[in-house]
Write a structure and sequence with these properties.
The protein has about 280 residues and is of the alpha/beta class. About 25% of the residues lie in helices and about 15% in strands. The chain has helices at about 1-10, 15-20, 40-45, 70, 90-95, 110-115, 150-155, 205-215, 230-240, 255-260, and strands at about 25-30, 55-60, 80-85, 100, 125-130, 140, 155-160, 175-180, 185, 220-225, 245-250, 280.
Length: about 280
């Protein structure tokens, strides 16, 4: 650990100094979803109009806070913002001509990140929020694993922005990056990680739909539940049901999955693939 700490100190950099590494014409990749950098984004946005030109910034599933590079450069003199996966923020920015969609199939994200066939699209600078370094020298991507690791490894400069509020989420599938694999470390301002508000109460129609679906779920079924009132209602009904040995193979976790697990409904023992493991796929 002492060796890692020495390397950690050598790679420490301020957000402002990190932003100065960006050159005209660069492609900047922001971390996906909740790993979008905060302090680096603020520092980079301050460079709008300082002679920096044609810098492409790519996000994936943009969440709050709204990127400063969008807010601080509405005329796009320095920055153009792109998103691989549009959220409400991306769509609204797009309505004002402040964001463009990068069309691709999300399940191909890791192919884009790793395949040399797409080397022309790899980032010059990758920056993402991570959890604090662990004793093994690893930074965890927390709530935004996605294709962060592949993009980071194939970028010209890889920078992590440490946020002590980012939870450490293990899974054994590209959820970390080692200190030896990055170039710089920003110690961020530890802002709260964005989280969705609780799902609304289901209406009568959604309750009827959920009851119909419950009749079709057998023991040992492999499930994928989205977000919103209906998926959470189904998950809560499963938690209180007699169903057993269910599996999860999902793009995301919804709140009800926690109750399903606590009630012993999720074992993953009957899955055809990734048995005994919860698996989230892009």
């Amino acid at each position: 650990m002492s060796t890692y700490l020495e390397e950690y100190k050598r790679k420490l950099i301020s957000a402002e100094k990190a932003a100065e590494l960006v050159k005209s014409g660069d492609i900047i990749e922001y971390g996906m979803f909740a790993t979008k950098p905060i302090d680096f984004d603020y520092a980079l946005a301050k460079r709008a109009g300082d002679g920096l030109e044609k810098v492409s910034i790519r996000g994936t599933g943009t969440i709050l806070p709204i990127p400063e590079v969008i807010k601080n450069d509405p005329e796009q003199k320095s920055f153009q913002y792109f998103s691989w996966y549009f959220t409400a923020i991306d769509r609204k920015a797009g309505d004002f001509g402040l964001a463009c969609h990068c069309p691709f199939n999300y399940h191909e994200a890791t192919l884009l990140a790793y395949s040399p066939d797409f080397a022309h699209a790899w980032a010059d600078v990758w920056v993402a929020q991570v959890s604090p370094m662990d004793p093994s020298g690893c930074f965890n991507f927390g709530l935004g694993n996605s294709h962060n690791r592949g993009i980071a490894l194939n970028s010209r400069i890889a920078i992590v922005e440490v946020n002590h509020n980012m939870p450490r989420c293990l899974g054994g599938s590209d959820e970390f990056i080692h200190i030896n694999e990055i170039d710089y470390i920003i110690e961020g301002s530890n802002q709260a990680i964005f989280s969705m508000p609780p799902a609304p109460e289901p209406d009568e129609a959604e309750r009827k739909i959920a009851n119909y679906i419950m009749e079709e779920i057998p023991d040992g079924a492999c499930l994928q539940l989205g977000i919103g009132a209906l998926p959470n209602l189904i998950g809560n009904l499963i938690a209180e049901s007699d169903l057993i040995d269910l599996g999860i193979q999902s793009e995301m976790f919804c709140d009800a999955m926690v109750r399903m697990y606590e009630k012993g409904k999720i074992t993953n023992t009957m899955k055809a693939k990734d048995r005994h493991r919860y698996f989230l796929i892009p």
